[in-house]
């Protein structure tokens, strides 16, 4: 059970890191006098979240086989898409969702061990 909870934590941390990187790109479009400071702040936060994600991922691997843990990370696809839609007004089309579901199903199929 703890392994599954840790996978959720990893997904949230890495999702946050990706979103911070996107925000850094937005800050880079600001006027020159504030661009660097704000961009670096978001990149530093992205690095911190992604580094914490790696640390928690190592803990996940202590509790779950990688063949199970890695497919669970496909949760990131859903989290990032939803967060990008909410925070950055990015459009999510039916085609996009079909692609996300296809990837998740493919990862799930690869992780199933024949009996």
From TrEMBL:
It comes from the Bacteria. The keyword Nucleotide-binding does not apply. It is a multi-pass membrane protein. Its main location: membrane. It comes from Serratia symbiotica SCt-VLC. GO terms for molecular function: carbohydrate derivative transmembrane transporter activity. GO terms for biological process: lipid A biosynthetic process; lipopolysaccharide biosynthetic process. The chain crosses the membrane at residues 43-61, 68-88, 94-112. It is found in: Cell inner membrane; Cell membrane. Pfam families: EamA. GO terms for cellular component: plasma membrane. Keywords: Cell inner membrane, Cell membrane, Lipid A biosynthesis, Lipid biosynthesis, Lipid metabolism, Lipopolysaccharide biosynthesis, Membrane, Transmembrane, Transmembrane helix, Transport. Pathway: Bacterial outer membrane biogenesis; lipopolysaccharide biosynthesis. Residues 36-111 form the EamA domain. HAMAP family: Flippase_ArnE. This is Probable 4-amino-4-deoxy-L-arabinose-phosphoundecaprenol flippase subunit ArnE. Gene3D superfamilies: 1.10.3730.20. Heterodimer of ArnE and ArnF. Belongs to the ArnE family. Translocates 4-amino-4-deoxy-L-arabinose-phosphoundecaprenol (alpha-L-Ara4N-phosphoundecaprenol) from the cytoplasmic to the periplasmic side of the inner membrane.
């Amino acid at each position: 059970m703890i392994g599954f909870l840790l996978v959720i934590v990893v997904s949230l941390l890495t999702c946050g890191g990706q979103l911070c990187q996107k925000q850094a790109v937005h800050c880079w479009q600001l006027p020159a006098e504030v661009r660097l400071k704000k961009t670096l702040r978001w990149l530093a936060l992205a690095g911190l979240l992604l580094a914490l994600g790696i640390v928690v991922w190592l803990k996940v691997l202590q509790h779950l086989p990688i063949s199970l843990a890695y497919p669970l990370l496909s949760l990131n696809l859903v989290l990032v898409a939803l967060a990008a839609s909410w925070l950055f007004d990015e459009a999510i089309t039916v085609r996009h969702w079909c692609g996300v579901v296809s990837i998740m199903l493919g990862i799930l199929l690869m992780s199933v061990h024949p009996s």
